[in-house]
Amino acid sequence: MIVDLGEIYRDIYVEASRTALELSKKYGYLPYMVQRYIDMLGEEEALKLLESLEKPVKPVVRANNVLIEPIKLRRRLENIGFKLEEIPWSPISFWIVGAPSTPSIGATHEYLKGYYYLHRDATSLIPVELLMHEYNGNVLDACAAPGGKATYIGQILWGSNSFVLANDLVLYRLRALVGHVTRMKLNNIVVTWCDARKLRDKINMRFQRILLDSPCSGEGRISVDPGRKTRTSILDLAIMVKREIELLYSVVDLAEKDGLIAYVTCSIAPEENEYVVNKVLDRRGDLEVVESPVRLFKYSRGLTQYRTLRFRRELENCIRIWPHIHGLFGYTICLLRKRS
Amino acid sequence: MPSEKKKLRFRKGVLPQHLRRRFVRLIIELYGEDVVSMIPASLRYTCFEPGLCIVFEGDGKLNGSLTILYEGPWIAFILGKRIVPSIPFVSRIFREKGVKAAVLVKEQGIKAFLYGNDILPESVIKVIPPLKGVYAVVDPLDEEVVGFVEWSNIKNVYVNIYDAGVFLRKLG
Q1: Fewer Cβ atoms within 10 A, N terminus or C terminus of chain B?
Q2: A172 at the B interface (CB within 8 A)?
């Protein structure tokens, strides 16, 4: 599929206003980013967003229930000084709300024994909960490293004959993925190395469930990685958007009829989310955006309009997680069904 | 100067016959002839750095030309020139055939071991034969295998071959 970078750049180009310039100076962002927040949310709410991105998020322990009962893990971690809090919508996961000076949560014996996976934040649990709702067949995780979601899916599929195809392109991240899979003793995960855009030419299999957690600007993770405030110029963003369109377009070919694809980014940028999905919908006649099969908590809806851009109405079905509303990383999830 | 990340090269393929033979010999020596049937017919390996390779079953779930880096179950480790069984493979042997060639270690000893240290003889609660020099380390708390050691007459300690912390230290 040919995607015109120039067209994307023209579509997403933003000129910063005086207010955006002032706020970007105060919070240390590239001006165009702040202008986008104002355009999406209005000045008052954009300020709340900027403030919330200055605050830390709570890391999460997700129990490997293949090896240990979550309640037993909780007791063991609390015995060595951690304070854990239940996540109401994820029964095997806990927020870490207190920690001893030593050991660090990523170096306990329980961690080394594979009893849990450590997430920076709870948002990455959400797409798995949605995609795997009442499903236990094979799953493709197209950009899987370092493996938080793939190992979670592996846990959900444990005991069935199904498996996760966990693919990625970046070798050092794949090394970490294999480390997690072996540490957690999950035998039902196959790890492969491929550009996800070329996967359809490399395997004959098709999937009922596909997770595409696309490499993105990571704008939703600024609270843990402030470098992202200035890392992505508009041109960089346009290049990412181009790749995201290509990725989504090509992984749809790997879905069976009626198969579900979760398009996920840890970004609140409409350019990387609604714009990408809208472009792919325009170019394919076999896709629709569907409602989430289960409501874990009160999400925000996807955008149907941003600046001069108009998106299809069905984009409303996408899920937006906002740091200032939900107290989590910024995240966007669109569930797409391949029509029969 | 390219960064470390860019220099990464993985080596992979079918486990060479001489390594397979060496592995089978070790398994027979430690756990007996009757566990040989548990070793899969097809073994593949991926090396993440020279002398650090994971050996896995690779049962061919996928057809096509995709580069497979890992496909469970994990069967063995190649560390330097040595091939040693994996933690889950030996755990399965112990479940099905009983515990052999193992050391049960006190909590403090396990703690040090999981951070890459050797095990002192005084930390060992019990040695389970056969006494062939190589032992699975069992944590009595969960009755789980957490790594492998080799007795050293020179150092007078059980030398760490690898432990469950290896993933964190080596693979990130």
Answers
A1: N
A2: yes
